[in-house]
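User: Round two. Same drill as before: sequence, then structure, for each protein.

Assistant: Same drill it is. First protein:
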Amino acid sequence: MWRVDFTNSEFLRGPSLSSVADGSLFVSNPDAVHALSASTGDEEWQFGVDDTRFHNPPIVVDGTVFATTNDPSGQEGGDGKGTSVYALDANTGEQKWQFDEYEDTVAPIHVAENTVFIPSQFCVYAVDAATGEQRWQFEVGYGVETNPRTDFFAETATGTLYVADADGNVFAVDVATGEEEWRADVGTRVTTGLSVVDGTLFLGAFSSDIEQPTNSELQYYVSALDAATGDERWRFTLNPEPGLESPTLEFVTVIDDTLFAGSDACSDYPTCASLYAVDAASGEEKWQFEADNSVNTVTEADGTLFVGTALGNGDDGVVHAVDAETGTELWCFLAGNLLLSPITVIEDTLFVVSRTDTDFEDAYRLNALDTATGDEKWNFIADSDVGGPRFADGTVFVSADRATVHALDAGVERSNEDGGTDDDSIEDSGTDENSGGNTEDEANC
């Protein structure tokens, strides 16, 4: 429908996109933040700062665009401008405020409850979203824990910020004052993002009683904590007998009354690389779906779970459609070497970005699949670096080739890009006559 080309020859990273707000798509390019008309691609404004680089997608909240720069040389008196958070008027691009009283960030910022939370290495800073004034800073002794596959370092709910450190501690912090409400030792290390649902904080972790354990001597589990007190309500253990298997948890998410947890592949044991369905109230297992590679992402729509494996790591990226009640596979789609984005479902179409090797060259694709069958409706091919897609009003926006933003007809009408629930050469595949797909090459998906 349209494309905008940027000049990024000196940068290895290309544009990253916000969600669409009030008809505008906001693009964080290394040299500037750009506001584009979502319908035409025309530039509405741009905001840049000399000798600094923007990184991470912009965040748009209540008419304000929050953008971050990452140029640590500025902290040491070099040519760069340092690390900063900028608040920009979404309509005009005018700067509202700038906050730079911190060192390099270790994860993207988190905006909630009129507060911008900034994760530095050993501190979380809280800044008033309207004024840019620092409210407080909270020290995290062992460093803020981050997961490279998640887009947040913390979760907020009912006036409380939850954050984990690198030593297996979880902190509950009062959003208004920065005072610690409680802390809980949940094990040796937290391995997933934090999720708060109906007064319970869910996370994945591992622990060991051995002073210097090997990976096989660790025990992996989902822990459900009382969000008000930090007391553990239940624990679901993936490997009750450490030493036999080591399935690290990749994510936990709650949909309706069920918690879904994905684990990675490990040493060819049958319970590794699985999606677990667990009763969110009791911690009792409902079912387990075994996959061929690390289970990294899941999205639900109309009673079906769409499960992605090998997200950003490994090989054999596969999308599985699984019945949410029984764990039965409905179809699967071999996406190529690996997936490069979480799965989004809008109406009857599933969208995911993948990569595959073709004659020793990489091909990057945005795949659109029929949710009922797994049949591919269309794909968009780029030479390199297809970013995570954004959606609005029947259009899918995607960055590609480190320099271009494309607006494509998505083939759907609804504008909500959170159509599910909620960081490659494509042929359809099938395991039986009822599966989507029709090629012999992909029959082993």
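Second protein:
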Amino acid sequence: MSELEAVTQAIPSRRIGDPEDIAGAAVFLASDLSRDVNGEALVIDGGDTHTE
């Protein structure tokens, strides 16, 4: 198993994110839908920070 495959298998979504994953969050934050969002950290990592 390659290092990239090992890293990918360790991420709950089982894939490396791409620019479109971040684009959706950026559009949300730039829109009026996020007008009441203040001081939050929006983590877009496929669940990687929630692994054991």
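The radius of gyration is 14 Å.

User: Perfect.
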